Amino acid sequence: TGKFECIEVMEEALGIETVLDFCKANAFKYIYRHQRKNGDEDLRKAQWYLNRYFEIKEQIEKEK
């Protein structure tokens, strides 16, 4: 609802490693529950978090 994505603020406030762990944990959560709750919608959310994880990892590699 603002001009910043929550996950970007998390990166700044909590650090990259914490956000990487958060992305993996959220992906797991959505995959784990998808059959009981929201089906493909949850799988798409899991995919979003995994994509974000890899985007961050690639960014880290480029900065080295």
Strand elements, count: 0
The tally of helices reads: 3
Rounded average pLDDT:
95
Please identify the structural class as seen in this structure. Answer: mainly alpha
H-E string = HHH
N/C terminus separation: 33 Å
Fraction of helical residues: over 70%
Shape: globular
Largest sheet: none
Short descriptors:
single chain; 64 residues; mainly alpha; 0% strand
What does this structure look like?
With 64 residues, the protein is mostly helical. It is 80% helix and 0% strand. It has three helices and no strands. The longest helix is centred in the C-terminal third of the chain and has 24 residues. It is globular, with a radius of gyration of 13 Å.
